[in-house]
């Protein structure tokens, strides 16, 4: 692989570390990215308040599933600490392992982090979900001394409609990772996390939202086989420049165009910066005066173009304080960029094509696809290899409440509980510092 060095900045445009080898942000090497993935894998949210209300109504197993005469009045919220202690004793494998069970929202929810050993020694990534569900069920039954006729209601409230359905329909335990049956194919699990969840977890910080989305998407590219071999560097550069604000490129483009700019001015700024940095150079001028450009390093050009795409999204959606135009930016930023330089735009046309279908789903005949419903596994957004989800996340973060289904309502207890984890809430600075810590060893 070509030796690349990058400077890493935080979400405020402040330098964290300079001359960092590109491989220091590799999803398989960067300690913070590894921590992000492992935290997501071993963490489960428990909605005690929701489960308490459901049991009081006898409503378990999801929509329209109510069993008259089978209600249970259990003070789960008031006994949250006892329930947390019970879960920890059961899911813990060794006395001093890294099991954590946190009581949040005054007992309304729990954040369970099963011990890492349960993840590393399991073939199936859903082992933390099943372990937590089993432990929660047993703890509640024992704590409230329930009999054999009452216990099944608790089991149904915890596990939902499983095993009748494979997706834990109606369950009051939640994981960011969907069950395998809901993944599009090999390696898709991290792409199946809704972008709304990512935005809420990062507490609507646009750069951090884009960073977390990009980290998950490009980590998925490794697992899908896209960021392996000849294309590894393409994806690492995309991760660095678009998602991690390498060389402060995204921040500076937004700052330059944020006050009076547009998608078109971001294109102009990006092209100017690419010429100044030697990423592209003139390739000739036609009789009409139209000048084309060439790139000696297409992977680096793609990374610059991707950074401009995120900056254009932030300028456009930020100006109107609304998320809906991210689909239009996906089309017209790339269209303008290709016309300006005569080179392929982001992801070699896949982002522009995604934007066309994205616009159809959200604005045309279909009309039901607000950006809040998308994820990298969605039929609309799966086509681009890691470059669209960061822009959707940033657009949602900049929205001022223009959609009926808010990201907070969609993310629910998962968004609230996972936002308490610093490495997920503020990934860009954690990844930069972690890259600095290994810069001499990669």
What's this, in brief?
It catalyses: coenzyme B + methyl-coenzyme M = methane + coenzyme M-coenzyme B heterodisulfide. This is coenzyme-B sulfoethylthiotransferase. Helices cover 49% and strands 9% of the residues.
Average of the residue pLDDT scores: 94
**CATH first level of the largest domain: which class?**
Mainly Alpha
How many strands, which pairing sense, and closed or not: the largest β-sheet?
Answer: 4 strands, antiparallel
**How far apart are the termini?**
12 Å
Strand percentage lies at 5-15%
CATH level-two architecture of the largest domain: Up-down Bundle
CATH topology of the largest domain: Methyl-coenzyme M Reductase, Chain B, domain 2
GO biological process, one term: methanogenesis
EC number: 2.8.4.1
Domain Methyl-coenzyme M reductase beta subunit N-terminal: 4-185
Protein name: coenzyme-B sulfoethylthiotransferase
């Amino acid at each position: 692989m070509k030796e690349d060095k990058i400077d890493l900045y935080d979400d405020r445009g402040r330098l964290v570390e300079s001359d960092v080898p590109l491989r220091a942000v590799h999803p398989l090497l960067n300690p913070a990215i590894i921590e992000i993935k492992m935290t997501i894998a071993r963490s489960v949210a428990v909605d005690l308040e929701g489960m308490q209300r459901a049991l009081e109504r006898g409503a378990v197993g999801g929509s329209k599933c109510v069993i008259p005469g089978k209600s249970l009045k259990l003070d789960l919220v008031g006994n949250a600490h006892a329930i947390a202690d019970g879960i920890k004793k059961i899911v813990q494998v060794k006395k001093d392992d890294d099991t954590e069970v946190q009581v949040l929202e005054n007992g309304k929810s729990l954040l369970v982090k099963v011990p890492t050993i349960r993840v590393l020694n399991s073939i199936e990534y859903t082992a933390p979900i099943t372990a937590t569900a089993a432990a929660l069920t047993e703890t509640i039954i024992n704590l409230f001394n329930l009999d054999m006729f009452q216990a099944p209601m608790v089991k149904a409230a915890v596990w939902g409609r499983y095993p009748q359905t494979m997706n834990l329909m109606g369950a009051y335990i939640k994981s960011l990772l969907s069950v395998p049956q809901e993944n599009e194919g090999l390696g898709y699990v991290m792409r199946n996390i809704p972008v709304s969840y990512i935005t809420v977890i990062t507490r609507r910080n646009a750069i951090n939202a884009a960073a977390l989305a990009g980290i998950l998407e490009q980590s998925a590219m490794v697992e899908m086989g896209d960021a392996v071999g000849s294309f590894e560097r393409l994806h690492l550069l995309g991760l660095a420049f678009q998602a991690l604000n390498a060389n402060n490129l995204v921040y500076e483009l937004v700052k330059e165009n944020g006050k009076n700019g547009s998608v078109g001015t971001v294109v102009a700024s990006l092209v100017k910066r690419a010429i100044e940095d030697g990423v592209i150079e003139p390739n000739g001028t036609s009789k009409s005066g139209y000048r084309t450009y060439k790139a000696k390093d297409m992977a680096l050009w793609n990374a610059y173009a991707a950074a401009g795409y995120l900056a254009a999204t932030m300028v456009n959606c930020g100006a109107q304080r609304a998320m809906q135009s991210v689909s239009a930016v996906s089309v017209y930023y790339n269209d303008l960029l290709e016309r300006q330089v005569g080179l392929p735009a982001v992801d070699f046309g896949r982002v522009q094509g995604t934007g066309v279908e994205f616009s159809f789903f959200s604005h045309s005949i279909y009309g039901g696809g607000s950006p809040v419903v998308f994820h990298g596994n969605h039929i609309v957004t799966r086509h681009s290899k890691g470059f669209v989800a960061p822009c959707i996340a940033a657009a949602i973060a900049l929205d001022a409440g223009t959609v009926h289904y808010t990201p907070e309502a969609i993310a629910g207890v998962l968004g609230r509980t996972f936002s308490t984890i610093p490495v997920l809430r503020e990934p860009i600075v954690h990844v930069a510092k972690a890259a600095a810590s290994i810069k001499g060893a990669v």
